[in-house]
Amino acid sequence: MTCIKACMTLFFVCFFLPGLMQLAHGQSMAPVAAPPMSNDGTTVDQGVAYLLMLIALLVTYLVH
To answer: How far is CA 23 from its chain centroid?
Structure first.
């Protein structure tokens, strides 16, 4: 049983720790400037479409 524990420990040390050490040397992402706020109307159109769909579902439920 101790041989199995020793083999598993050796396996962990030999394979997993080097991979974790590679992750430790990763580069951080450079800060990116936020894109300018613009509204081309698609968000408003989608909101109106969802509202109309909800009203249609409610009317269908009440009429049925």
So the answer is: 19
Look at the block and give the residue holding tokens 């579902």.
57
pLDDT digits (tens, 9 = 90+) for 24-61: 666 666 677 767 666 667 778 888 999 999 999 999 98
Please give the model's pTM, rounded to 2 decimal places. Answer: 0.40
What lies within 8 Å, CB to CB, of 43 at 6+ separation is: none
Distance of CA 29 to the CA centre of its chain: 17
- The DSSP secondary structure of the chain, one letter per residue, reads -HHHHHHHHHHIIIIIHHHHHHHHTPPPPPP-PPPPP---SHHHHHHHHHHHHHHHHHHHHHH-
